[in-house]
């Protein structure tokens, strides 16, 4: 399946800048039913893409909870990503050259504006479920605040109402690694790749947990290895991301994540969350150090009638991608007729 491309009109960003010539890559699965009310819209996380069936298996796909034989599934690649939507690698219409590190700052609200424009283009007026984890959850929350009557159900996992100083510090540490690579400032294809490798190794420490590393990356007791398992794992993961992602997009999207604050200009976070009209399921992960349970509890406390549950996982933040059986269990409870909003 190939990505579909939607060309945006000139998009005014939250900063006041105009993003000209922008486009969004997206995919759909399944068919709209007669009432056009079986839509599931997926907001993806930092380095994912529009192909939700490839990165959320066990939750989306044939035989899964969100089976395209029953649902019309939509997933759009966010602006700034290197997976088909307008990114730092695309040419600036004014100059004909890629923007690289000069790509305009995008906020979560800008990413949502692109989703909203695509929704209007597709003529979808009733979205049954809006779902996302991490950066995807931030987008979903922002959109649900903006359009309280559009979504019937909202499912957010391992996310928050405002990106924390802790999360911003982790992102800045990763950007410092990328910016320390001299090829990044040169503005060229592959610029910042070595820095991106180091950034990914840093990020993994926030995505996983102490217990997960100890259980899977501890060296055998009787060996004195030249390379420790944990060391080679970090290098492997860095190489893996460099092979599929781009440093300029990584910087752009991590800055978008830092911008997330539902309460900005809305009288604070509680007031903003109080606007959400969708039936909401909030899922936290017990071992998540990047988006701790306190942030999920804040969401549930201020979203009217929200259901709150915790995934008991050893995988840390990445549990939102891996614990699909547990997520399915809570979805079944959430959608059950006995659930009271």
From TrEMBL:
GO terms for biological process: homoserine metabolic process; methionine biosynthetic process. InterPro entries: AB_hydrolase_1, AB_hydrolase_fold, HAT_MetX-like. It is found in: Cytoplasm. Pfam families: Abhydrolase_1 (PF00561). The active site is at residues 134, 288, 317. Residues 39-322 form the AB hydrolase-1 domain. This is Homoserine O-acetyltransferase. It comes from Hymenobacter montanus. The gene is metX.
């Amino acid at each position: 399946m190939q990505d579909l491309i939607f060309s945006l009109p000139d998009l005014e960003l939250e900063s006041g800048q105009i993003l000209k010539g922008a486009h969004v890559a997206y995919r759909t699965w399944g068919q709209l039913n007669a009432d056009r009310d079986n839509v599931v819209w997926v907001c993806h996380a930092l380095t994912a893409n529009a192909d939700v069936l490839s990165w959320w298996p066990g939750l989306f796909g044939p035989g899964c909870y969100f089976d395209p034989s029953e649902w019309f599934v939509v997933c759009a690649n966010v602006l700034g990503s290197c997976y088909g939507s307008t990114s730092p690698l695309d040419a600036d219409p004014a100059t004909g050259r890629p923007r690289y590190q000069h790509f305009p700052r995008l906020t979560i609200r800008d990413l949502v504006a692109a989703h909203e424009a695509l929704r209007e283009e597709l003529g979808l007026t009733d979205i049954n479920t809006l779902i996302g984890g991490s950066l995807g959850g931030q987008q979903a929350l922002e959109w649900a605040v903006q359009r309280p009557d559009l979504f019937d159900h909202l499912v957010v996992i391992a996310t928050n109402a405002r990106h924390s100083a802790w999360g911003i510090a982790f992102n800045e540490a990763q950007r410092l690694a990328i910016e320390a690579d001299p090829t990044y400032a040169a503005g060229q294809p592959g610029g910042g790749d070595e820095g991106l490798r180091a950034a990914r190794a840093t990020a993994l420490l926030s995505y996983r947990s102490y217990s997960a590393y100890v259980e899977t990356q501890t060296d055998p007791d009787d060996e004195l290895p030249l390379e420790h398992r944990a060391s080679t794992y970090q290098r492997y993961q860095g190489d893996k991301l460099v092979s599929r992602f781009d440093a300029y997009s990584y910087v752009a999207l991590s800055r978008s994540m830092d911008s997330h604050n539902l309460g900005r200009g809305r009288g604070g976070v509680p007031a903003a969350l109080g606007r959400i009209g969708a039936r909401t399921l909030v899922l936290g992960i017990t071992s998540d150090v990047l988006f701790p349970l306190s942030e999920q509890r804040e969401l549930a406390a201020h979203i009217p009638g929200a259901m709150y549950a915790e995934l008991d996982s050893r995988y840390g933040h990445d549990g939102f991608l891996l614990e699909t059986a547990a997520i399915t269990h809570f979805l079944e409870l959430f959608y059950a007729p006995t659930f009271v909003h």
